[in-house]
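Box S2. Input/output pair 1.
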Amino acid sequence: MDIAGFLGEISDYLYTYLLIALLIGTGIYFTIRTGGVQIREFGQMIKGIFHSRDKDRDGISSFQAFAIGLASRVGTGNIAGVALALVAGGPGAIFWMWLVALVGMATAFIEATLAQLFKIRWHDGTFRGGPAFYIERGLGSRTWGIVFAIFLIFSFGISYEALQANTISAIFESNFSIPTWATAIVLVIVCAPIVFGGIKRVARITEWLAPAMAIVYIFIALTIIIINYDNILPVFKLIFASAFNLESGIAGTGGGILAAMLNGARRGLFSNEAGEGSAPNAASTAHVTHPAKQGFIQSIGVFVDTILVCSATAFIVLNAAPSVFTPGQDTDMAGAPLTIAAAQSQLGNWIGPVLVILIFIFAFSSIIGNYAYAQVNFDFLSGGKEWGEYTLRTLILISVAVGSLASLDAVWNFADITMGGMALINLVAILALGKWALGALKDYRANPDKPFISVNNPHMPGELPGDIWDHENK
């Protein structure tokens, strides 16, 4: 068995027997405990995106933190990952991807709110927080905080960076015959000044790049959907029927309903990151007057990523049947090339180069967004020492270079394993600490316009460590 196959078996076991049930179960639990926050507060989530551009002099705005999370979320998982899920799990994988996202919005609210509650002020005027910090400060375990930070650094500092670079090099090679080594050199040169500029530079770039690329991609998908308007209901029927194996021949090449669940949950988690413990690292950096406000904003990021952008890819590919892709049958194409071929079959060859450029921007933004996550956790380990910052940034560039030359299967499977490990730790932590986020939600609902104060707060289960929330955080 080769390395890709070995990693694949580990990944399948991890998701089949642990993560699918834990992800969906945690999402359902917090959906109930929050009173359906993803539905009840949906309007507040939308409002928060457009009223969160203000920031303090040194910090990062709530919108910039949202954009960093969106940049990391909206990447190759939305284009290459969804196409891979359709091939391996059939159209039904999209249903399970939707389910993971919808209940995951509640999970995302909880983990982002916890990141705000337990954040600390950093020496550059920004904040640092996330699972490593709330595990240490909320659960009193520096050891498990370190374990989580190591998993995240391997995920976002190594495997995810390699994965994004892998997709870029693959599409440039297949569409423009550019050798992978050339792509590796260009990516390192382009990424270096941004990565070495730190989190503030990443925030400035992603706040316009991430929303813009998502809007353009959704517009392309909507064009294809409108052209095939008579196929909208059949596509939905195909997705739901395949999800529960109600029609023969469309359940996917991997084995019926289990294949659909496995691939949908795995690709959904990779794409929207709900419960994974990654987005809270960005959420913690924002300056807000109430921790629940950033919870709302990060929750809507899951919706944008999966319900909008991932669904866009699904409709592009499924509308190309049977000329490019036939559900339930093997195909020589997978990942981004399948999505591009599907779009070309409906809009013409001219859309190919456009999508190649767009995929490059998707993957590139994810590289710099992933760096921000890894930097927060490397700071947790090193205490913000200068050697730690430069070590991580060098590691990021090495991962980008190596990923451009690696095999697709090996990179995907390694990313799944490291992501699964950090998700398990984070899910256990937020289940243990959820009462703090629920208390913050109660405080917000009691008086939405009042800044959050932790001292003598009747809605909170106790006093928070530190002094960030012991006064009006204006």
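Box S3. Input/output pair 2.
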Amino acid sequence: MTETSQASPQPLDREAYERLLQRVSFLHQWFQPTIEGIENIPLDEGGLIVTNHGHFGIDLPVLLRLILEGRGRIVRSLGDRVVFALPIFRDLAYSMGAIEGEPKATVRLLQEDQLVLVYPGGAREALSSPADAYRLQWETSHGFIRTALRARKPIIPIAGLGNEELYVQVVSQDRVRQSGVGRFISQLLGDKYVMPIYMGLGALPFPTELHYIVGEPIRLPFGPEAADDPETVAILHRQVTDTTQRLIDDGLARRDGAGTDAGTDAGTDADTDADTDTESRAAT
């Protein structure tokens, strides 16, 4: 979220929004997404949703549709300036309810009791190395805290699981930066926009199961004046970041542990069957 401001957000066409999410319903067949804690999404109150950024944001329409179907709520997402630089991407973003990440416009949406989603990690997190998978990179992103304070609305943390396995990174961002194309992109758009090279099923992502965990809303115990206090903002930033990281870590532990438990259970069942069979032969 940049510090430049634009008070009037792009209006939303609800029919176009729902039509677009219906058109990408094939993503639900591809990813088989699930969500838990959906009750933590308020039915009529505004809130700032924060979540970890997966590869290219491909899973965003999946999450938007889960919230629409589960709570009947439209979510306005904040997009990077690069998304709005080209008309074809800008029109698609507007249809999906996205606006450019401008603080005043975001505050206005929240005060109108709308839901707004932001990826605080931005392009840095979306294009990071596999070693940083599922590690939040929000250290320099404090604007979302100030925005929530000014709007007097809660922050709703969501952990996205599976969105780091959509593609396999085969050439790192650092190596691409050293190429002629990488240097050109860096000079044109900025160093953080240099894209690694990924491999999927051709252009398609791998059919990874996506799972989202919605945490309880975090209500900030300060008023708008705290947005101008760097120390208070830093404390709240750490609280929100740590809470979201715990959601991710706990979800990964349960996801990865489920496979181990299943294998253990399967082994136990197999041993039990073998014992039963042995006893049966002995009785015969």
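Caption for Box S3: The mean pLDDT is 87. The radius of gyration is 22 Å.
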